[in-house]
Amino acid sequence: MAGLLEIHDKDGHPEHKLKLERSEVPFICGGCKELGFGLRYQCPNMNCNYILHDECGFGLQYRRPPTQKFFKKCDFQFHQQNPLLGTRICNICALDIQGFLYQCSHGDIDLHPHCANLSLTITLPDSNEVIELRENTKSRCLKCQRKERASGKVKGLSYVSSDGKLCYHVACLKEACLDNWKRGYFQLDVLANEENKILALQNLAPNQVVRPSEGQSSNAMKGIKLLITFLKLVVSAILGEPFALVSTLFQISQN
């Protein structure tokens, strides 16, 4: 998605225009209130920390999301706050919406701006692995070990490997990334320590073996490498592809 070089949030931050920047430093978006990395719109005033996801800035400017494969019959409109009464749940991640949102004109479908921009398929240049965003899966999530992640009547989507063996709910992935950030793992100096990498990876997949070691069979080593490749793909999708951070976190896969 090509972003504008600057935007003006006249309601949320009328004092200054926000400029598009790229950073590996995590932030909480002032619009949707969710964790963000990578591209962002930031106030140039050094004393101001107002920041927006680039997707939230896109919504402010254009008022509509990119084409949504899963909600083709919906006419989405961008809102800076929920125009209806009650709690709204994102139909992609099944988590509460606290700020900016896209809402169907029928009022029955809601999306976080960042979720509305998630990649439908993701790959690595040096890998044959293809990960798809799916509505239904028979696989269990690597984090919660459940087949579905739902809130009320809303069932969230999942990233699933092409063979169907690896699955991660978008909701669980967002929560795991936020938890790793709160634990301080998403800092380049912290990830310079090998044990911190293992802790961060283990938190992403608590029931899996993520540490290669001597004496493991070739099949076991292959399974760990496939798992870490999958995690690298889905974390990159959720975090907005902060390449230096992701490469450092998953460098253990080369050991």
TrEMBL record:
Superkingdom, natural source: Eukaryota
Matches recorded under InterPro entries: C1-like_sf, DC1
Keyword terms: Repeat
Chain coiled-coil ranges: none
The protein's name: DC1 domain-containing protein
Short name of one Pfam family: C1_2
Occurrences of domain DC1 (ranges): 13-56
